[in-house]
Specification:
The chain is mainly β. It is about 10% helix and about 35% strand.
Length: about 260
């Protein structure tokens, strides 16, 4: 029971990350809102009519409600973080403030929590809806690895710098600081945004031949105080072959680039 309690508490802590802090977007090449059609710590609230970013609301066994984010990758499929959906009693999704009934949910069979390193592995899930989501699906980065120093965009429905929990769609610029087979890393220390509560499962978007592609999903952070300038965000690396295989097997219409 003690181990299960620790695991549940770690998941709660890790799930609290969303996009928050950093320097002016003028330091970056791309306008985050304009790029995604969609704020985050040091991000910006975006007023848009259409966006591929999904809001995911989850009812836990204790009947508490939580919010995560996701990205549309197929006509009726959304990628999000597996830890968001663990033991969920009820999951609802919305895109552009339109709610969709969930058909099925699948999480990667190798999803695990590493208590020693405070990291999640294979932290990815796929939500399938009965109806078409009516949003432009974002391709998956599959042909190259994300590069250290590369600029990206993170987006989600998490809290902002003022701890606002309205869960408005937000976007912010980030710079990749490190990569491994399992994770992509970013930090707001030298400018940029940082995910905060509610952004878990939201996409890390990169540019490929001028087109947005999803390279990672917000998974966890290193700061016990939540999002802030001292935090390092870990994203699930979608270029991992075992994760790409999971996506291909479950999202037949997903585009790969």
């Amino acid at each position: 029971m003690q181990r299960l309690w620790l695991l549940s508490q770690l998941i709660i802590i890790l799930a609290s990350y969303a996009a928050c802090g950093g320097n002016s977007s003028e330091d970056f090449m791309y306008d985050a809102c304009m790029a995604i059609g969609a704020k985050i710590f040091n991000g910006q609230v975006c007023n848009v009519e259409t966006s591929p970013i999904a809001k995911i609301q989850v009812l836990s066994p204790k009947l508490t409600a939580g919010t995560c984010s996701g990205i549309v990758v197929g006509h009726n499929t959304i990628l999000t973080a597996a830890h968001c959906l663990q033991d969920a009693l009820l999951v609802t999704v919305s895109v552009d403030d339109i709610s969709f009934e969930v058909d099925k949910i699948g999480t990667h069979q190798q999803f695990q929590v590493d208590l020693d390193n405070k990291a999640l592995f294979f932290d990815i899930a796929i939500i399938t809806t009965f109806n078409d989501l009516g949003a432009n699906a974002i391709p998956i980065l599959a042909s190259r690895n994300p590069a250290i120093g590369e600029e990206g965009i993170v987006s989600g429905y998490g809290k902002d710098n003022s701890n606002n929990s309205e869960f408005l769609l937000a976007a912010g610029n980030v710079t990749i600081t490190d990569t491994t087979k399992n994770h992509i890393f970013s930090s707001p220390k030298n400018g940029g945004a940082n995910p905060c509560p509610g952004d878990s499962g939201g996409p890390l978007l990169l540019f490929y031949d001028g087109e947005l592609v999803v390279a990672g999903l917000v998974s966890s952070g290193t700061s016990s105080k939540g999002c802030g300038n001292d935090d390092i965000t870990l994203y699930t690396n979608l270029t991992n072959p075992l994760i790409l295989e999971f996506i291909v097997d479950n999202v037949p219409d997903a585009a790969m680039m």
